Batch of 2 targets.
Target 1
Amino acid sequence: EQHPKQQRDSGKPNSSSDLPLESLKKVLTEDSAAGKVKRKRAQTPLEKYYLKYLCVTDLSTQSWCEQQMVYGRELPQLQAPETVVLLNTGKSIHLARELEVHDVVKIRTTSREDSWAIKILNLLSVIPVLQAGGCVRELPVFGVIEGVFLMGIIDELCYSAKGELELRELKTRGRPFMPSGAQKKKDYFQVCLYKYIFDAMVQGKLKPDVITSHIQLRPEQPLGSQIRDHAQKVGFTVTCFGDLLELMYLNLTLSDIPGIDCLKIEYNHQESNTLLGTEVVRFEEEKVRERAQYYLAYWKGQREVQGVEIEEAWKCQSCSYSEICDWRKKRAEGPEQRSGPKKSK
Ligand code: SF4
């Protein structure tokens, strides 16, 4: 009886040098095809949640606790009721402020392109106001960082007495005092991302194909009748989605709107509607890009989700997910049990 190894040895050639060239090519092709099947790429979080883009607030929430942001997406029903009430009241206050400067009209959409057309029309309608030195609220901004499409809504843009373009972000708080340093850090990051995206837009970096390729929209898609009518009312004659994209690109790049000069965050007490304080935020482009790169690495599947480090474990005390949090459990078991890489920042 022969040993299996000997059987192979005595039967077919066992090394590539024994094979004629054509057979070798075939074996290599089959091997690499098999390897591909074995090494099937895992889904990235972007793919898992069917996301073609992220919101700026996704990244700023992530900067508070990435694990909490993921739980918030997967298990929103576990969010503490007081957090939901606070968020809803905040939304109502924002809407009330928006209504102070313009009316909100209802428009029926018939395609994904129609939904994006509304965002673009909102943007187009504020460009002349900014050009004339006016103040705008709820301004949509879009852009790409580290290959990921980001969308956000700037609360307010106004010119200051010095003639500088100033971004004002309103934060409403349930408690009648200013937030902690960690909370402020999250808010700083949010407004810095807005500036990063807005500046790129007015510098002409948001080309029409950037939007269509990232969001997978069809420029040739005809716009719905209500969209076309609304566009006509605000001064634009458009037929298909691509027309609006071209108009947006031209209006942004040909306008003389400057980049944002100053970033301010106003903290208001929700119940009494009193101003608690204003923070002026310093914009450091390199740092903003580095942080965005770090957070987006999670979304692109380049690293595992992480919770807070031990020095920020106090955040877990007020977290809606503290009872079920895997990261917290692993941290309690000891540092050697943790699987994720150590946070670099
Ligand atoms: Fe993050 Fe702590 Fe909440 Fe876990 S318990 S999600 S680590 S804040």
Target 2
Amino acid sequence: MRSLVLIGHGSHLNPESASAVYAYADLLRAQGLFDEVVEGYWKEEPSLRQVLRTVQYTDVTVIPMFISEGYFTETVIPRELGLGHQGPVPPQGVARVIGGRTVRYTLPYGVHPRMSEVILARAREAYPDIRAEDTALIVLGHGTTRNENSNKVVYQNAERLRQGGEFAEVHTFFLDEEPKVVGWQEHVKARHVVLVPFFASEGWHTLETIPEDIGLTGPVTVFEDGPHGTQTVYYSKPVGTHPAVAEVIVQLAEEAHGASSQGGDIERGHHDAWSALMQLASDSLRLGEVLVRPADGLYEIRHALDEGKANEGLKTVVTPEGVRDHVRLDERGEYRPVHTLRNLARGWRAVLSAPDLQRALHYLYPAVVEESYAHHHHALRCTPWAATARRQTGIYAKVQKATPQQVETVARDVCGSCLKTRLWADQVLNRTFFAGVPGGIPCAEACTLLVAEVREEISGKAAAAHD
Ligand code: SF4
């Protein structure tokens, strides 16, 4: 029995940020190669601190869904998962036993050698008539920033593709470092040029800055009277969104796992928590803002304020993914980065089988069942604010300077509309929803939204002090 965990960055502001990770998780789930596929995020829920608690099995492979190695894959993710490892990840990955689970942490998918095949696939999509004698390939990277070391992997892929001999020329250019892509015409001689962005997702760079820097007018742009005559540029989609990345993820997981391992068992604490939840749901359960109850051999979830409403007046969702997509926005269409904020939209119901109910509740309130059950049994460990602040690095390190009053001011604002009780700030929660209190949900550690807001508070105060 094996769990696969895909780790993305996520966002407190942009609901689309997680969509690529969700798409790969859906694809891998449909393939059925793993007993379970779970997503976790730096800036969304389940958070990196929570995600291991939400997996069913004791054999867990964790893959960072990043295009290159750097600050997140080497510092943030290992630290937040509790791997006890910092710095470059060796090719074989890092394996640790954490909370009774064997966790194998791999390199990011973007540095796997098979990404050269994905670049080639993107190039062929953009220009199916590639001929070795008159076609050049440009692999375009972002360039090394404070957080990433993306140039190394761009050079490695270019070298592999050069050796493959499919192109007359293979070039590497970057947005933010030399050689910059703006000067490409000085270096590229071939009449046909395929430009493949080595980026994780479609976004500001691939849709705006790259076309603007180069003067692209669409997927195909003709440049006349350049240093090497007329050249046609075929612009591909980014490599990170190609479906073949799913194959790279599977191979990475297999390489990390090794042939000899037998796989894991069901994790006892997780199993007990969900068994208790299903027992409650078999009667009727109020959990946070929803009502869960049995319905003709299936289960129904609906907003508790919609209790008694006719089914016909509600939008019916029938899959966990449907619930996931529905609860990401509130009634005004605003993004909900923290799922326990009291702004769940009304007007919908979900009808689901027992296994799908569990996955839907996981999407609705990530890690809430596991953490509440642990608290119910006095087994939930809390992390005080000071420890959370001490752990922060990079641009968040400054939250260590926040006074208790500043943290409390921000928490009153941010947490005031959250269902959870702040155990990390010494608030007391005597009974959870397992004991019949619908809003009885523990918060064991300040979430990343609160940390980000504390940073804003300090930055604002600092800026005001300079004015
Ligand atoms: Fe909710 Fe505050 Fe906990 Fe974040 S820190 S999950 S907003 S209670």
